[in-house]
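Re: beginner question about structure tokens

> Can someone show what the tokenized structure looks like for a real chain? I only ever see the sequence side.

Sure, here's an example I had lying around. Input first:
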Amino acid sequence: MSEYTASSEVSFWKANNFMIITVEEITDRELWNGFLTSQPQGHLLQSYEWGELSKYLGGRIYRLGAMENGRMVGAMSLSVSPVPLPVSIPGLRFNWLYCSRGPTVEQPDSPALAILIEYAHKVAKREHAVVLRVEPNIADDDPKLDDWIAAYSALGFQSNPIAIHARRSWVLDIRPNAEQLLANFKMTWRQNVRIAERKGVIVREVENDVDFDAYYDLLKITSERDDFFIHDKDYHKEILRQFASKGDAVLYLAEYEGEALAAKMLIRFGDWCWDMFGASSNNKRNLKATYLLQYRCFQWAKAKGCSYFDFRAIPEVLEPGKRCGGYMSTKRALVVSHACTCPRRIISTVHSFTAPGVNSLRCAAHAVMLNVRRSNWNGRQEVRAMRRGR
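And the corresponding structure tokens:
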């Protein structure tokens, strides 16, 4: 049985029948994930496990489910975070609410969308939140894109060009059989896979703490080389624990004569597989271990029944001829080698003030939050530029 704390209900007419939708906080993992994986817009970042990871990092979350006659018709996982004010003011505390790749409802005109947003504003009031930001998992080639945008606009949302999670990723269709999948890559990529096999590179699953340490050491090397942030080792262990317990995650090492050369963590949710984290050594790169490792990742995803392989974040604007650095170069070289790879971009972040036109101080706090995030982004870009100039 599901456990709920009943929160809100709205009545409406549907097909000449009087229906009631309730918004409830969901604690049933199977119910939550079952709904998300049944929907085209369902996403890993809305999964029950991802909410647990947010709580592991010290955050607070709300899993709001829209229920119609016992059937789930909408889901919205919200995280609560403090607004990063430049100075601490005693007695003054503001938060903001964020819904990553959600909410998820069946259609743009579903009454569940408005009801979920209405209840989210009640959460905002309870949490002293100044703004609600959502990044729906709606691709910019969705045939109902205009309807989705109109639905959010009608609810008072405004477009925001600054995304929390990158909007663009590369996606590979892995529905072809294994032989055809490999054949669709360019000859050089196929040759590199065979070179790694011929030279004795072995790909295997991580089995113990020593293996996990090897993975994280590679991740630290890659982070330093390519200038990106990584969470601590315990967080990566928690990610694997959350998803691997039901066979929905795997961590691979590519080795040569016992030396770890590359690693990958994959997560499956529904019929999608995400290339979560990748790392490689600075040594023996001539053995092409990353190519064989990536091909094994495709095989794992296919064995799990996945249709699509998401390589995750890439730059918002792909400028022709512009060189990409480090891990991004490897990712780009891989995906552009395949005939069935396509870029996927999510619609812009949208946000709404929780008390529009009422509290100018709250609006000012929200502006500070956006400026801090923009400043942090610019600062990271400057650091990367300085490192490249060393």
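Each token stands for a local structural state, so reading them left to right follows the chain. The domain at 4-166+348-381 is CATH 3.40.630.30 (Aminopeptidase).
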